[in-house]
Design goal:
The complex is a heterodimer. By secondary structure, chain A is mainly alpha-helical. Helix content of chain A is 74%, strand content 0%. Chain B folds into 2 domains: 2-151, 3-Layer(aba) Sandwich (Rossmann fold); 159-282, Rossmann fold, CATH 3.40.50. Chain B has 10 helices and 11 strands. In chain B, strands 6, 7, 8, 9, 10 and 11 form a 6-stranded mixed β-sheet that branches. In chain B, strands 3-2-1-4-5 form a 5-stranded parallel β-sheet, with helices on both faces. Classes of the chains: A mainly alpha, B alpha/beta. The interface between A and B is large, with 45 and 44 residues.
Chain lengths: 333, 288
């Protein structure tokens, strides 16, 4: 099959799967709602509990899941290609630890944002992720004109440990209820309960996806070696810079929206590679859709499995994603 | 107070009972007490044993006098060295602090074990603590006063319709994210029941539950009471965040209250005041 057709089929199938999951997910939840009442315009919205559960509680949450899952999975693909390391995740380069530190500080100091419907936590967390990106980027550029992927990796891993230590220190200084809330934040939570955080996360993620659109062909060449990519006319340094900054931006926005939900950035891309092969022109869009579907599905489990209690979504992604991935790994040998 | 007019023989027999309760090895009246538990520290000061308290926990903030004592850590980070250097003859520790208990045993320092549980346990703990430190009368007076104050609240609200209430003790400042509410057990739940409310999460047999906006809408509380300490997590909490879910009766009828104060979250001697404050908002006009 020609690549054009394969791309069209990939977009269509994975897009349809993601759309289907996103349509079904809001119909499920910890309580049962009457769909007729949800869309019954004769009941004023202010008094319509079913409509409020659907439009205030569930829909933003499903959209947040789609956005976060998609951003993390796509960033995972980009970073694995950039670092030529199958173990790379969106959290490898310190972005999520920076975001977590920002969130911890906002939670512990109980910073007010001053805007109703918008917490200071995502703002601080996004700022933290940008800070981490700036540090890692500065270090990786300091040594030579381009972007040293080795320095990038080492700086990222070190920064992760360093920020984790700072996080532990902040937790040590805070009281019990705050510590509990911060630990809970680390498990991921998509219950955004309004559209404002979604609207805030869309621009950086859209910007990153814009960059992702031009990356796949260059990443195919880069995954062989810098030299071969350069010999075929790829501006290696520019591509690396673009890949690193766009993946980091998407990760920072995703983490500030839903917390550092683990496993998506590594399981989904590898899962997709097992299905569509290694061509980034297929892997990247398929992972973006697959990540959305996977996280929305996991969050549905999180909302319903032990209702009225909730299993943290990061726990669900790891429990479902881990064994499933291992099974696929063995089956495809 | 009426208690002062009791015949001497009652005091004597109470003291005797205390001696018997305290058991061997604890007959001496402790003079250097360390408490790393905020509510126990409060109990000690409230029963007049403040002058005998030499060390307190990092999170102890009440009464103000307690802040002048040496700080010896908290639940997860008790400072053994500092505790021993204070030469205490009684240390109040959480029942779950097994390491600390072992170390205290090794150092031959007597301990008072504290268990965090329901509302009725607060006054029984006060009586037990009074007996343990040789202040039986002070302990039972304090416990009696708290029981009477709670009974008074119960009496005043008796027969009134009990509003279904969501008791929130944690939430992100401006949004409906990270809402932590009281489940169907524990002293917060008991407090709400005593104040004349019906907990919307009575069926969830846990001390706390992280609730989502969906659950909050579905449980349809008549009243939402948010509580929090002065020092944390409540200072900037904005009740207008609830406006997004107007289908909740409490939101529609503007019955959302924020009760702030260190005592609200503390299962100590100020509990009866907390119950009273909660009853005031649940049953306007019934209390005063």
């Amino acid at each position: 099959m020609r690549i054009g057709r394969r791309m069209a089929v990939t977009w269509l199938l994975f897009g349809a799967a993601a759309a289907l999951v996103c349509l079904v997910a809001p119909l499920m939840g910890s309580t049962s709602i009457n769909l007729w009442r949800v869309f019954d315009s004769s009941i004023p919205f202010a008094d319509n509990a079913d409509a409020q559960i659907f439009f205030v509680a569930r829909l933003p949450r499903v959209l947040a899941g789609a956005l976060v899952g998609s951003a993390l999975a796509a960033s995972g693909v980009v970073l694995q290609a950039l670092l030529r390391n199958p173990l790379a995740t969106p959290f490898t380069l310190g972005v999520s630890a920076g975001a977590a530190l920002g969130a911890m500080l906002a939670l512990t100091l109980d910073m007010p944002s001053g805007i109703v419907g918008f917490s200071a936590v995502p703002i601080a967390s996004f700022a933290g992720s940008l800070g981490a990106v700036a540090i890692v980027y500065g270090l990786a550029r300091a040594r030579r004109s381009g972007l040293s992927t080795n320095v990038l990796l080492l700086a990222g891993v070190t920064l992760n440990s360093f920020f984790s230590a700072l996080i532990l220190f902040v937790q040590f200084l805070s009281d019990f209820t705050q510590t509990f809330r911060t630990v809970r934040w680390l498990m991921g939570d998509l219950d955004v309960s309004s559209y404002a955080p979604l609207l805030a996360a869309v621009p950086p993620i859209a910007l990153s996806f814009g960059a992702f659109a031009v990356l796949p062909r260059r990443m195919n060449l880069l995954s062989i070696s810098d030299e071969s990519a350069a010999s075929r006319g790829v501006d290696v340094h520019r591509t690396q810079r673009l890949a690193f900054l766009s993946a980091s931006l998407a990760t920072g926005a995703a983490v500030s929206l839903g917390g550092p939900v683990g496993f998506i950035g590594i399981v989904v891309p590898h899962l997709i590679r097992l299905i569509v092969g290694a061509d980034h022109r297929l892997v990247l869009p398929a992972s973006a859709f697959g990540g959305a579907a996977f996280l929305v599905a996991c969050d549905t489990v999180s909302r319903t499995a032990l209702a009225p209690l909730e299993v943290p979504v990061g726990v669900v992604t790891a429990i479902i994603g881990g064994p499933f991935f291992l099974w696929l790994l063995i089956r495809n040998r | 107070m009426a208690a002062h007019k009791k015949p001497l023989i009652i005091h004597f027999s109470l003291a005797l009972v205390a001696l018997m309760l305290a058991g061997p090895g604890a007959q001496a009246r402790p003079q250097r007490i360390v408490s790393i538990i905020p509510s126990v520290t409060e109990m000690l000061f409230a029963m007049g044993a403040g002058p005998r308290v030499v060390g307190v926990g990092t999170f102890d903030r009440y009464p103000p006098e307690a802040l002048t004592r040496t700080k010896v850590g908290g639940l997860i980070d008790p400072d053994m060295e500092r505790i021993i250097s204070l030469k205490p003859d009684l240390v109040a520790v959480y029942e779950t602090q097994t390491d600390l208990r072992t170390q205290m045993n090794r150092a031959k320092i007597p301990v008072f074990l504290y268990r965090h549980s329901g509302l009725s346990d607060i006054t029984s703990t006060i009586r037990e603590l009074g007996a343990r430190i040789g202040s039986v009368k002070e302990g039972s007076d304090l416990a009696g006063r708290i029981d009477a104050e709670i009974a008074d609240v119960r009496k005043r609200i008796a027969g009134r319709p009990r509003p279904r209430t969501l008791l929130v003790f944690g939430r992100d400042a401006e949004t409906l994210r990270g809402i932590y509410a009281s489940g169907g057990i524990g002293f917060l739940h008991d407090m709400l029941e005593a104040a004349g409310g019906v907990n919307v999460f009575t069926d969830v047999k846990r001390q706390s539950i992280q609730t989502t906006s969906e659950l909050a809408i579905a449980r349809a509380p008549d009243v939402i009471v948010e509580i929090g300490a002065d020092t944390s997590s409540s200072s900037g909490r904005n009740l207008r965040a609830w406006d997004a879910v107007g289908a909740i009766p409490a939101v529609r009828n503007k019955r959302i209250y924020l009760l702030r104060g260190d005592g609200m979250m503390n299962p100590g001697p100020r509990i009866s005041q907390s119950v009273r404050r909660m009853a005031e908002v649940l049953h306007p006009g019934a209390i005063k």
